[in-house]
From TrEMBL:
CDD domains in alphabetical order: MFS_NepI_like
TM segment ranges: 20-38, 58-77, 84-108, 114-135, 147-169, 175-194, 215-237, 249-269, 281-302, 339-358, 364-385
Membrane topology label: Multi-pass membrane protein
Compartment(s) of residence: Cell membrane
Gene Ontology, cellular component aspect: plasma membrane
Protein's UniProt name: MFS transporter
Keyword terms, alphabetized: Cell membrane, Membrane, Transmembrane, Transmembrane helix
Cited InterPro entries: MFS, MFS_dom, MFS_Efflux_Transporters, MFS_trans_sf
Gene Ontology MF annotations: transmembrane transporter activity
Pfam families per record: MFS_1 (PF07690)
Length: 395
């Protein structure tokens, strides 16, 4: 099913880049809101009388609803103007942040995370397709890198600032800090995003047709294991740093900062090189992430080594997202919204499974088992990518 770009309004190039940057800020807020519980896991669990494994499921629940939203977005949204869909999703993120900041118990926390999951799944499902309409095809990888710079910013500053501020103003206060930023982002989107009408309505049949493509189905399987491997480790990084590395609040903040700042390197590298070397990136990333996790198991008690390993992991984490979206834009360019819905569902499902898998291992076997499980999943992702020939539409 072809995306009829010629039948929709094409925004001016000068306005388009402003819209891309507004989407980058939205990504930063989404990532910050989704993964702040990683740096605040212990105080959240203590405050709501939950185990750390249970608190980690706050990430899983957002992933579950993100899966549903990503699969339904291109069908339920129908022919709604994509600008107003994105604005509505940002408004929903604002509501979620307010609810989590005032949550009285674990049940309401999970409700707020469910709302956030809808926003995450909806935004990512449409994000790549919208980018492809905002800039010329030769600028897609660059625009994706700009959008994912928001992920690098959030990864760099959300966790360390969240960890630091959490000790000063409490974990609820940390979420309140995000509220005015999201309001500014909402206003920016209203101004910068051009009208993005669509003349096509996706159906579940379209999704199934795309999924039946052998190269795409294999890619989706690799996506699931790659992201599950990453987040079965990342969701429980704070307990590891507390128990194995033995870091205090200041050390934790510094380590999270090292991880996050390296994301800018990964964003730059993927934005510059992934377009011509996408398969190489898809091969290297899970291998390096698995080796880093193995290195943490062996040398995680040494703070300097841990900081270096986390920096490498952070660069790979950002590069992973951009690389898979670049793969999508090159190999499913005839149905980007359908493919976007499916790959986002796969990613969010992987986050759900990874965080859930890691939480069970943490509660019943300990943090070493959690990290070992992460390495195993990353190895499967690498095997599925293989030489990469079976991930290409021409193969």
């Amino acid at each position: 099913m072809q995306l009829n770009v010629s039948a929709v309004d094409t925004p001016k190039k000068s306005a388009s880049w402003g819209a891309v940057f507004s989407m980058s800020l939205c990504v930063a807020m989404l990532i910050a809101a989704e993964f702040l519980p990683v740096s605040l896991l212990t105080p959240i669990a203590d405050s709501l009388n939950a185990t750390e494994g249970q608190a980690g499921q706050a990430i899983s629940i957002s992933g579950f609803f993100a899966v549903l939203a990503s699969l339904l977005m291109s069908t339920v949204a129908g022919r709604f103007n994509r600008k107003w869909v994105l604005v509505s999703l940002t408004s929903l993120m604002l509501l979620s942040l307010v609810i989590i900041a005032v949550t009285p118990n674990f049940a309401i926390l999970m409700l707020s995370r469910a709302l956030l999951g809808i926003c995450i799944g909806g935004f990512w499902a449409l994000g790549t397709a919208v980018i492809m309409r905002l800039v010329p095809i030769e600028s897609v990888s660059k625009a994706l890198a700009v959008m994912y710079t928001g992920q690098a910013v959030a990864a760099a500053f959300a966790a360390p600032i969240g960890s630091y501020l959490g000790a000063i103003i409490g974990w609820r206060g940390v979420f309140w800090v995000l509220v005015p930023i999201v309001i500014v982002n909402l206003i920016w989107q209203l101004i910068a995003l051009p009208s993005l009408p669509t003349n096509e309505r996706q159906s579940f049949h379209t999704l199934l047709t795309v999924l039946k493509r052998p190269y795409f189905a294999r890619g989706i399987a690799a996506v699931v294991f790659a992201f599950a491997g990453a987040f079965s480790m990342f969701a429980y990084l704070r307990p590891f740093l507390e128990t194995i590395t033995g870091g205090n609040v200041v050390t934790l903040s510094q380590l999270f900062l090292a991880l996050g700042l390296a994301g800018f390197i990964g964003s730059w590298a993927a934005g510059k090189f992934a377009n011509e070397n996408v398969i190489r990136f898809l091969q290297v990333v899970p291998v390096v992430m698995g080796l880093v996790t193995l290195g943490l198991l062996g040398f995680g008690h040494i703070v300097v080594v841990t900081a270096l390993l986390l920096a490498i992991w952070g660069a790979m984490n950002t590069a992973m997202s951009i690389s898979w979206m670049a793969w999508l834009s090159q190999n499913v360019d005839d149905a980007p919204e359908a493919a976007g819905s499916l790959i986002v569902a796969a990613i969010q499902g992987a986050i759900l499974l990874g965080a859930g898998f890691g939480g069970v291992l943490l509660d019943y076997a300990g943090i070493i088992a959690t990290f070992s499980g992460s390495i195993f999943l990353s190895a499967i992702a690498f095997m599925l990518v293989g030489s990469g020939k079976r991930l290409l539409k021409a193969a």
